[in-house]
């Protein structure tokens, strides 16, 4: 009996020992599994961090952002589809400038995907901080972008007005609103300040600033629709199909948004060209933005506010065709061998293409603005072709490029101010919000 009890006690102790061993093993396995999960998570975290670091722009790329000048067709008309895959960049600069302005205006975005430039919307010096998510983040970026646009446009407004005065001076002479032609940029500045005062250099700037907000909102509405409709790939669908799709998407999106904001650009053009030098008593034709709408509607109706719209839409396609055609033709020739990874070679190519396409399409900008100037006047052009023909016949081809030099200066000034404003945002807020660089 005592033996049985002792044996039973031994068995019971062994069972307890086995149970304890089983629990210890299970606990060890559980901890080991947990440790493995933690190690895997840590490895994944490190991998993500390294990937994120690799995606950050290098010092060379950041420097490239300071000097490289982006492409685009117009302050109203240049969308970023096809070769421009950055949706945030597209949202910032959808319609922003005159036909040749964008070559210098937004130095923070790359010209094409193939050029070794910064691939994100960022300050020319510092990488952009992650933006807030949701509607609040969109609203902040939208409003801060508006402030940025206002600062940039306002700083460059004097040069912009001089550009418009020189570009449209022949229409003003015919209408009796200008006493004598301008001799150049300096003469235009001097006479405008003497005859109208310093503040007159900002005439028409309000309409130009207001135009930013509807264009950004319209861009948000149209960009995805047309991107899906014409989303051809160069390697998959072939060059010509991709090229045609790029022109079609740019033209359709540009024309759609341009339709809603064109009257603001018309009003800005008329106000900027409303010189009072040759007027009796120094009176102006228009008292302000609302007065432009009121008088144009009374004399010409809705057509008066949209005069030159058709040629503006054509201009979108012409610029994009010139830009991508020049890029695809010159890149294989210029960026070869040791120049393939050269920042300066890429910069020179981007400068050449954007300014070349901009200057080549500048006559279209001249024609559309000259047509705007005839609203409310007794003599009008029959069409954009008639306008083009009459300018060539009566004034010569040189007249189609009047104001192009001031246009380049205006773009440089706007780009410099925008870069400074982006840096100021980083210093004040610790990050850079959306820019309205247009």
Q: How would you explain this protein's 3D organization?
A:
- It comes from Carnegiea gigantea.
- InterPro entries: ADT_euk_type, MCP, MCP_dom_sf, MCP_transmembrane.
- This is ADP/ATP translocase.
- Helix 5 packs across helix 7, helix 9 packs antiparallel against helix 11 and helix 11 packs across helix 14.
- The chain folds into two domains: 46 residues; 360 residues, Mitochondrial carrier fold (Alpha/alpha barrel), CATH 1.50.40.
- The chain is an all-alpha fold.
- The radius of gyration is 31 Å and the shape is globular.
- The protein is built from 17 helices and no strands.
The profile of the biggest β sheet is: none
DSSP helix count? 17
CATH topology of the largest domain: Mitochondrial carrier fold
Task: Give me the secondary-structure category.
Answer: mainly alpha
Unreliable runs, pLDDT <50, ≥5 residues? 1-9, 56-132
* Assigned CATH architecture of the largest domain: Alpha/alpha barrel
Number of domains: 2
Strand content: under 5%
- Total count of strands: 0
The H/E string reads HHHHHHHHHHHHHHHHH
What is the rounded distance between the termini?
101 Å
Could you state the CATH homologous superfamily of the largest domain? Mitochondrial carrier domain
Q: Mean pLDDT across all residues, rounded?
A: 73
Fraction of residues in helix:
55-70%
CATH class of the largest domain equals Mainly Alpha
Q: Shape from CA axes?
A: globular
CA-atom Rg in angstroms:
31 Å
Subunit structure: Monomer.
Membrane topology: Multi-pass membrane protein
Protein name: ADP/ATP translocase
Catalytic activity: ADP(in) + ATP(out) = ADP(out) + ATP(in)
């Amino acid at each position: 009996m005592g033996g049985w009890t002792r044996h039973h006690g031994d068995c019971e102790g062994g069972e307890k020992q086995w149970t304890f061993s089983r629990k210890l093993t299970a606990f060890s396995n559980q901890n080991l599994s947990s440790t493995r999960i933690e190690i895997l998570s840590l490895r994944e975290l490190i991998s993500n961090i390294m990937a994120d670091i690799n995606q950050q722009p290098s010092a060379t790329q950041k420097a490239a952002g300071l000097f490289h000048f982006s492409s685009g067709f117009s302050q109203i008309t240049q969308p970023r589809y096809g070769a421009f895959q950055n949706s945030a960049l597209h949202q910032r600069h959808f319609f922003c400038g005159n036909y040749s302005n964008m070559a210098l205006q937004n130095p923070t975005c790359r010209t094409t995907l193939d050029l070794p430039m910064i691939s994100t919307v960022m300050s020319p010096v510092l990488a952009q901080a992650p933006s807030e998510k949701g509607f609040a983040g969109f609203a902040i970026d939208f409003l801060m972008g508006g402030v940025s646009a206002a600062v940039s446009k306002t700083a460059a407004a004097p040069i912009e007005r001089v550009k418009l005065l020189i570009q449209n001076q022949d229409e003003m002479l015919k209408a009796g609103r200008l006493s004598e032609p301008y001799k150049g940029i300096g003469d235009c500045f001097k006479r405008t300040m003497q005859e109208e005062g310093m503040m007159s250099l900002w005439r028409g700037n309000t309409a130009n600033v207001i135009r930013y907000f509807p264009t950004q909102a319209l861009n948000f509405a149209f960009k995805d629709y047309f991107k899906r409709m014409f989303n051809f790939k160069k390697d998959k669908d072939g060059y010509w199909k991709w090229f045609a799709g790029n022109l079609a998407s740019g033209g359709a999106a540009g024309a759609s948004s341009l339709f809603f904001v064109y009257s603001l650009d018309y009003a800005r053009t008329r106000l900027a060209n409303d010189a009072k030098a040759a007027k009796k008593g120094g009176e102006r034709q228009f008292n302000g933005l609302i007065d432009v709408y009121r008088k144009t509607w009374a004399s010409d109706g809705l057509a008066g506010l949209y005069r030159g719209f058709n040629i503006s839409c054509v201009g979108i396609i012409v610029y994009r065709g010139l830009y991508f055609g020049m890029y695809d033709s010159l890149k294989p020739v210029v960026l070869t061998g040791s120049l393939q990874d050269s920042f300066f070679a890429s910069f020179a190519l981007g400068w050449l293409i954007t300014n070349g396409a901009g200057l080549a399409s500048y006559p279209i900008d001249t024609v559309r603005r000259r047509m705007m100037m005839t609203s409310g006047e007794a003599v009008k052009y029959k069409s954009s072709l008639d306008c083009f023909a009459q300018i060539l016949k009566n004034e010569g081809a040189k007249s189609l490029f009047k104001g192009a030099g001031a246009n380049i200066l205006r773009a440089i000034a706007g780009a410099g101010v925008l870069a400074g404003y982006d840096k100021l945002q980083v210093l004040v807020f610790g990050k850079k919000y959306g820019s309205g660089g247009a």
